[in-house]
Amino acid sequence: MKQSKYGKKRNGYLLTGGILSCLVTALIVCGFFRTPYSTTAMNAKEKMQPPSWQHLFGTDNFGRDVFSRVMEGAGTSFLIAVMVVVIGCTAGVLIGSLCGYFGGMADLILMRICDTITAFPAILLALVIISIAGSGVTNIILALGILFIPSFARVVRTQYAGIRDLNYIKAARLEGIGTPRILYAHILPNTLPILVPAMTIGFNNAVLAEASMSFLGIGIQPPKASLGSMLKDSQNYLTSAPWYALGTGFMIVLLILAFSLLSEGIQQSAKDA
Amino acid sequence: MKLVLKKTASLIITLFIVSLLAFLAFQIIPGDPTTKILGTHASAEKAARLREQLGLDRPVLVRYWEWLVSFLRGDFGTSYNYLRPVGSLLADKLPVTVLLTVFSFALTAAVSIPLGIASGSTRSRLLDHLAVILDQIVMAVPPLFFGIIACYVFGIVLRWFMPGNYISISESVTGCMAYLFLPALSLALPRIAMTVRMLRGSIREELTKNYVLTAQSRGLSRGKILLRHVFRNAMIPVVTFLAVSAAEIMTGTIIIEQVFTIPGIGRLLVSSIGNRDFPVVQAIVVLLAAWIMIVNFAADMLNHWMDPRLRDEV
């Protein structure tokens, strides 16, 4: 780390990550309200146009603007990933904190269940859940959300098991502070340095999982734009319209990169502070 | 020894639960395999006869028990779709996936360990920054997308290989390895980036420890300190991580086999789910889950073997 003029450490991650995240978020938020072109209307005249100023990422086999569809797809991916992390993290913190703090038989059983869930390939479990419940954004969020609970629960449990016997917790107990307060006001903040990276990894994995599911045809169903199903389509036109695949993939990379860098930056500045 | 027994017992229990779940999950899925085989116009009588023939008319738990017993004997049932024993289907497809996994894992280990050591022990700021930036970018490229780029660049632009034209190992060993190189690399790249990052962090952390200072004060050269003391300790978490990677690479083949149209169990799995060919799906799910758990078990054991400090905790 170089010292800058003002005596503060320069944090390249935070800067790049911040800028990229703002850019991606702006694109996504914009895409919720308006995209440059319709994401579903087909246009036979403009089939498979290479990138130009009119169509930044070119057009696909139906003449739809790839950039507009990528904006919508990124929005869907983002929404799904955030919701998955919210569900997984909330439930994971709840289960992990109770298991780690109290231990005992329930802890043993719950952790065995977590082991079992993680032993299944996530894609596979998602496939099973989707085949039972039917596809759709809500079901994808629920399926992935449930699948992401064990990883959070494990991380949180380890933290709680380590912290529960520290002196400040013993002191808090002697002072007669209630258990919920000890759990979530005294211990939880100290798990954040581990929990924040876990959330970023969870977000990345959720983006990837959704893309993979849609790629296999069990995620978001066309004509709704999804980065995964667009990649699948684009593979058929790799020879005639390579920009289709490249633009779509670029968006996935950008989405993951932006938020990983941001999280890296936040961790670094927390360490330096 | 006590630890090994304890872990083995828990491994067996978890495997048992997994097999039960895998079996039950496919009983809940809507869709009747008989309509898949006979078509929707078959008479109810014919369907009933087939159900009896496939053993679908008996209680679930009875069927589970029979399935489990024959599974352990190596009889995985008969595919509804191909009307062939699942065992022989898997025998066709499994070697391809295993080969891809091994290849990809070998690439991961062979590339990431030297790179990690180099980036962890370099004193050049520029090199270090470059490694970190490259790492972040590579980690963000999903294997799925890298595979598609590779198909485009090496398949369509450079014409080095034909995407979709898989060469089996019986046709030509070098041809097969050449075809599997890009899929293996696509799977390995993010893993390589993660391992390098981890090894780098691990070496950096070890370097700040007191034993390094002691060694320095004893007049040992930097190279010797790194080689004899630092790497040994720094490798411990990385070996565990690499072992777990072996499991994740295997799962990753499901997707990458679709991208490169490789006839492995991933493709068989996806098509069997579409066809509601449950015996095939169950067999693959249980085998994959067993593989993941055995690898995790091995990683645990390896960890204890490499790090004597953990042995006291048992």
Which percent range fits the helix content of chain B? over 70%
**What structural class do you assign from the helix and strand content of chain B?**
mainly alpha
Structural class of chain A: mainly alpha
Q: Could you give me the name of the CATH homologous superfamily of chain A?
A: MetI-like
Oligomeric category: heterodimer
**What order do the SSEs of chain A take from the amino end to the carboxyl end, as H and E?**
HHHHHHHHH
Task: Work out the helicity level of chain A.
Answer: over 70%
**CATH H level, superfamily name of the domain at 92-278 in chain B:** MetI-like
CATH architecture of the domain at 92-278 in chain B: Orthogonal Bundle
Mean pLDDT of chain A: 85
Q: Over all CA atoms, what is the radius of gyration of chain B?
A: 24 Å
- Tally of separate helices of chain B: 13
| CATH top level label of chain A | Mainly Alpha
Strand content of chain A: under 5%
Distance between termini of chain A?
13 Å
- Helix count from the secondary structure assignment of chain A: 9
- Count of discrete structural domains of chain A: 1
**How many distinct beta strands of chain B?**
0
Q: What shape does the CA trace of chain B take?
A: flat
DSSP summary, beta strand count of chain A? 0
